[in-house]
């Protein structure tokens, strides 16, 4: 195929969830265990996947040329909803499944086939034939779209109990099979409160609410979380590009969570067991540590201080048990320049800004890391009613590293958000 499936929803498409899907939340089946995942590896991708290294990693971890993959794309619109179905412009669950299957085969997988569960095939989530298909797989790849469609197709009831197909995937993960997901397919893997939408400015200003909202700027979340395969913290995708640091600091603080993993586009967080993780790809994986954070009020508006932020690039490692990051092999400590860090004026990369600055908060942090004359820098929100300031400061434990190929990674930058 020449087409590329969407890694996530557009802002106009984010509200399109069919009300007729309530039937998919019916009879409860076997509940999943409260665990942080089994012995199989997890690969969480931030969307817009193109990096060859990530595909190669997925295939290798699943068994290389012997690996049999099942592709799950239930987060995409079904074929019956797609006016371009059957053409090279298609963007639906079936053709997206074929697209990812072809890519995995190109990267050395032994076989790859679509698992036919979507909004056109709800009954297949309980099909013995599909369960048997799942049981033969060594790896599973979950595509992007809208993670709520995964909820409505593969989970059951208010307690989010497993459908027969999801129970079979869970069993294969416990037996050592790989689970990978991009964009919505990564977000759905988490155990804690799962974000369903929202922009950073509105999230910081208004707070979070449980549910799924038609307004894509409202910070919503599902209290029950997703599949529960990843239990080390909240997960978000398209992270730096869409300025999602603000929404996830607010969601974590509101729901009593102390860690967030934000994954950039074309980047993967690879978790291989016992809390061991590493970064693969062209962007960064961001770890927000809220153990020492304090949320409160500043002149009538929400505020938070004491968040610690690490941005890790290709080859860097993270230990979720000890909460420590380490640079990849061959990365040298960054030697700061003599310049000052510049203040930012669109810190959350607002969609309302006439000249939106994707990745602005990460740019500010890296410029601060590279500055030998600044110990802190401020970034302002584009919106002014009210306006917020994000304060970034180097801590005593701050460290930064440079790689000619991967750019700057840093650890333990202090973050605060206040009314300006």
Overview of this structure, please?
This protein is an alpha+beta fold and 420 residues long. The chain has 2 domains: 19-326, 3-Layer(aba) Sandwich (Rossmann fold); 334-419, no CATH class. Helices cover 20% and strands 29% of the residues. The radius of gyration is 21 Å and the shape is globular. The relative contact order is 0.13.
Helix amount, in percent?
Answer: 10-25%
The coarse silhouette is globular
Q: What's the mean pLDDT score? A: 92
Distance between the termini: 49 Å
The whole-angstrom Rg is 21 Å
Task: Work out the number of β strands.
Answer: 23
Helix/strand/pairing category: alpha+beta
β-strand amount: 25-35%
Helical segment tally? 9
What's the CATH first level of the largest domain? Answer: Alpha Beta
Poorly predicted parts: 6-37
Major beta-sheet overview: 9 strands, mixed
CATH homologous superfamily identity of the largest domain? Class I glutamine amidotransferase (GATase) domain
Domains, number: 2
CATH architecture of the largest domain: 3-Layer(aba) Sandwich
Strand order of the largest sheet: 3-2-4-7-1-13-14-18-19
């Amino acid at each position: 195929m020449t087409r590329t499936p969407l890694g996530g929803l557009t802002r106009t498409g984010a509200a399109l969830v069919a009300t007729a899907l309530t039937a998919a939340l019916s009879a409860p089946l076997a509940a999943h265990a409260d665990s942080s995942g089994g012995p199989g590896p997890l690969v969480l991708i931030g969307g817009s996947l193109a990096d060859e290294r990530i595909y190669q990693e997925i295939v290798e971890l699943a068994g290389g040329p012997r690996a049999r993959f099942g592709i799950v794309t239930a987060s995409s619109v079904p074929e019956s909803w797609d006016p371009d179905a059957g053409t090279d412009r298609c963007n639906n669950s079936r053709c997206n499944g074929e697209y990812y299957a072809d890519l995995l085969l190109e990267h050395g997988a032994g076989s790859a086939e679509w698992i036919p569960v979507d909004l056109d095939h709800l009954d297949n989530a309980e099909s013995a034939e599909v369960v048997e298909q799942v049981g033969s797989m060594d790896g599973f790849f979950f595509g992007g779209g809208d993670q709520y469609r995964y909820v409505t197709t593969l989970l059951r009831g208010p307690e989010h109990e497993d459908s027969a197909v999801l129970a079979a995937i869970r069993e294969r993960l416990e037996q050592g099979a790989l689970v990978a997901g991009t964009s919505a397919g990564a977000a759905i893997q988490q155990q804690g409160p799962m974000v369903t939408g929202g922009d950073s400015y509105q999230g910081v200003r208004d707070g979070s609410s449980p549910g799924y909202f038609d307004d894509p700027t409202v910070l919503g979340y599902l209290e029950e979380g997703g599949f529960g395969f990843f239990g080390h913290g909240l997960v978000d995708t398209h992270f730096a590009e869409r300025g999602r640091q603000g929404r996830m600091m607010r969601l974590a603080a509101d729901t009593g969570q102390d860690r967030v993993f934000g994954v950039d586009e074309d980047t993967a967080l690879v978790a291989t067991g016992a809390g061991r993780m590493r970064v693969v790809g062209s962007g960064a994986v961001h770890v927000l540590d809220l153990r020492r954070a304090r949320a409160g009020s500043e002149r009538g508006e929400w505020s938070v201080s004491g968040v610690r932020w690490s941005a890790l690039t290709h080859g860097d490692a993270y230990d979720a048990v000890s909460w420590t990051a380490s640079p990849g092999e061959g990365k040298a400590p960054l030697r700061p320049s003599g310049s000052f860090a510049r203040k930012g004026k669109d810190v959350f990369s607002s969609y309302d800004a006439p000249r939106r600055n994707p990745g602005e908060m990460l740019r500010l942090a890296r410029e601060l890391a590279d500055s030998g004359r600044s110990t802190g820098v401020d970034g302002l929100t584009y919106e002014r009613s009210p306006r917020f300031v994000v304060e970034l400061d180097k801590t005593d434990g701050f460290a930064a590293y440079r790689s000619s190929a991967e750019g700057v990674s840093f650890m333990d930058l202090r973050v605060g958000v206040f009314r300006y």
